[in-house]
Fold each of these.
Amino acid sequence: MIDNGLLVQMLLGALLGLSVYLPLAAGQLSLATPAFYAVGGTLAALLSTRWSGLGATADGGFPVPSLLLELVLGGLLAGLLALLVGRLVLRLQGIYLAIATIALVEIVRVAILNLPFTGGAVGIFAIPQPFHDASGYLLPALALLALAGWICQRLEGMPLGRAMAAIRGDELAARCLGIDTTRVKLTAFVLSAVLAGSTGALAAHFLNTWNARQGSFDASITTLAFVVLGGSRTWLGPVMGGLLLTALPELLRPVGNVRLVLFGLVILLGPVLAPQGLITPALLERLGGWNPRGSAEGRQEAQP
Amino acid sequence: MSAPLLEVRDLSRRFGGLLAVDRVSFVVQPGEIFGLIGPNGAGKTTLFNLISGVTPPSSGAVLWRGEPITGQPPHRLNRLGLARTFQNLRLFDGLSVLENLLVTLQRQPRSSALAGLLGTAQHRRAERQRLDTAWQLLEELGLSALAERQAGTLAYGDRRRLEMARALATGPSLLLLDEPAAGLNPSEKDQLCQLIGDLRQRHQLTVMVIEHHVPLLMRLCDRMAVLDFGVRIALGTPDTVRQDPKVIEAYLGSGSGGGNTP
């Protein structure tokens, strides 16, 4: 059933779900997450295998501080790319933005496939391991998820998060109310990229090999499904979607070849049965006082 | 007399073959309520869009306290002190009434993103201040009982007032109201009239208002401009405008009694 390896994969799925959620919280349908994931992963794979300064040992070991450094660098590089690309693509809206970001995913994939130092179709393998087994990755993956979730939760009660919600609600109204929508959208896009980049860096070590297939159009759709199935109104939705949809194909393994059909059915029926996704603000409120938008701390005391 | 708050100079906007706004000029003085009337399709909303930066003008200039602001994006104009409402209400329907205001209270007081993430004392103080301002505005516009309701579920008149509250939350000097009385019943229209006057006093506002309901506008405004087919055909106090033959012909004909309709 669920072993540590699958648990780590589920956590990585949840992280990618959040990466899709962030631009969506500002009303931007970006499918670029796999591109940034690929950039972060490739950087980590290259650094750890080519640069001895990070301290990879002959028997394939790797110091944990170097892993953390790679998480930061992977996030930074992806964020930098998002900053450059975002200025251009975020002029587009709705489905046009989705298509432009799919193009970005393809460009990054083809680049990684053909660059002279990324190992072509085989990719980079024998990526050194900071931990003895998969369970070692649980802690960093959980910590990254906790950090991302915390940021998303805090955003709800601060100006940036509210500006994102406003743009999602009505972009023109937001502009006329003094919100610099270009800047807010770009910030959400960069945050999304940083998260995907760091996730990629962690995933590269966890998977042990890395190649261009890691960031593909398929992944764009899968990560989007995390958000659609989980629900895009609160950050818990994409987390739940990422956890479930990553686990499901593995849990269905015992039923044999039908499993992919069943998986497809879940993705198909999810939006039909729960159009808002599994986790909705209303559900969270019913579950007991969790304020899904966490806004207005102390609104009671301010109430006259 | 002090410099005009807003000056529109030879402003035009062409949409393909249609000249929606045709070399319109006027000034709006600080503190006045300035009306904009005209038949449907006369270019009133287009003019608002030009002034608020939503649509760039084809030619002409808009000046704010004597400085040219033509072509600036809406958010920058809003930060200068120009706020507007929309004819077909554009609330953030998914957010609560209170949140609709909090969204707008972004910059006063300022708090950094890092302070917000860490929930520092500075951030909490800023949040409390935002909440106070938001509650004050809700109180002022009679919306405080609805604070927790989703904006999308409000009754029409409440939605209109929420949109005004939201515009006021940006701390404007000039408030552009696009048909604020549309869809209101006569008693609500009277209340709105009263409210606009009160708000002008309390917030030291200058108000520009588009309105179809002529009696209401006549009562409310200090001065008004009349548009017809994109051209400003009259400008002045309600009394002058009421007696202008061109206005009577174009717009007031049937409504004002005594007009000679062609």
Note: Confidence is low (pLDDT under 50) at residues 255-262 of chain B.
Amino acid sequence: MRRLLVSLLTVVAFFAATDAQAILNIEITQSLGTAFPIAVVPFQGDHALPAEERVSDVVTSDLVNSGRFSEIPRSDFVSHPHHAADVIFKDWRIVKADALVIGSVKPAGNGTYSITFRLYDVFNKTQLAAFRYSAAPYQLREVGHEISDVVYQKILGIRGAFNTRIAYVGRQQLGNRFLYRLQVADYDGYNPHTILKSYEPIISPAWSPNGRRIAYVSFEHSGHAVVYVENVSTGHRRLVAGYHGLNGAPAWSPNGRDLALMLTKDGNPGLFVLNLATGILRRLTHDPAINTEPTWSPNGKEIAFTSDRGGNPQIYMINASGGDVERLTFRGRYNADADFDPNGKKLAIVSRMGGAYHIALLNIRDSSVTPLTDTRFDESPSFSPNGQMILYDTLVGGHRVLATVSVDGNVRQVIRLPGESVSNPAWGPFNHPN
Amino acid sequence: MTKGKMVVLALFLAATGCAGHKGVRPSSGPNGTSSGTGTSGVSQSGVSGQALPFNSFSHTVHFAFNSSAILGVNKKIVKENANYMLAHPNKHVRLEGNTDERGTQEYNLALGWRRARSVKSMMEVLGVPANRMSTISYGKDRPVAFGHNRAAWAKNRRVDFDYKH
């Protein structure tokens, strides 16, 4: 069951899935600028699959939700080719498609499928890509994301991030208690599974650079905030910071060897760097203010963080080996929770403007701050690994929900997981082990 | 402390436990103390240096936005809790810092911690030994009011005195 409503600026897609937790509602709340018009012909054999496994639907959703593509409505199609020999380019120029995707999904024995797809440049009447995949039924969405990555790369010249995962914290009220779940899901919210359940809060999940491990803060020991590192596939976990006082704000170094942390073990909330192999802890900040929310530059040389040493929370940067601190934000009274973009030139931050908390981009070179959202309680920005989108959480109808915004601020979407408050999202790296 | 008073206190804890609250929370708000009905013969005066009955003073102090300063009536509440601790040398208290929902997760965790430390410092000045107090922070994750408005935010910017830990 899938319904797709298209209007000029709004696309609403409803998905129904087998698992109640997987039911999503992705809304594009704003879409401006020039999107690339693409036609995705329903793949031969797709209609026989359950709705959430239809490969061409996955491709269409990925591309449209990225904000960089607009879908040519299927009702406009003049022909429905599945194979190279059936493609008539004139049919696609008529419907104003600049690119065309066709393909097929066929049973290949032993419960597996063979999937083919081709991408065409309609104007130049050329084939840009052709691939064949073999997949088990549970891998069909992954194949769809692979195809989307190919299209994104070929058309835009940018690596796609559709085959990535996210982590987040779900909160569910059970009587007079809250049940917290640390969850991992595909980037689009599908295939969620639970890493940890607790009746005490869980916050600040952070992916290791290779996507195998997640660091997080758990209050499960009588409310004492400690930091664990957990292997996502085995479930094995290790307490890495359980010092006296608060242990929080884990951030991985790009080489995966170190964790930057906020600890209060020596008094005030200060930044530390923990070597995970040796257990050696190095103190980074020495002032009496709050210093927290570290994020490493992609080259590992610098750490940006939040400090209120100037009277209110602002973004600062320090050499990862210690030393001088440079202030990066100067406007407004609340700039916090930075996340480095993959190019190391900008930081996604939470910036208070006129009493509202927006996701904004901080340009490190000139300290300019550009708001990307206009909702009131936006938090926890996390870049996609290709730097094109920022995942965050916001308040909609009294519940926290996940949302994404493109780095140009033009495309915003809300990903809803009904019945829960969802927060603390973290977008994982490109390559994840299966 | 006499054995008789200990029994009275135990009854109090049992009674409030039945009320279904997490921890012992007297029904006072930010504006001060509730009346201590049905208490034992301990002094009701509230004069500095004399301990009030357990349920006759607030176990919560409140704060301004992004502040850990203890102001106004909250100073009196800290004193009342300090007096209680001084009169009950075997008691331990956990100071739990909290913030409102606004702002970022980890900054609020640190802010809640600083509020708890601020209360602990004042308690120490009032003579309560540091080793009978511990501090934690829940940041924004343990609200007592769930609205997204000023009234809810004011209630959530707080330090709770938890005598169960």
Note: The radius of gyration of chain B is 15 Å.
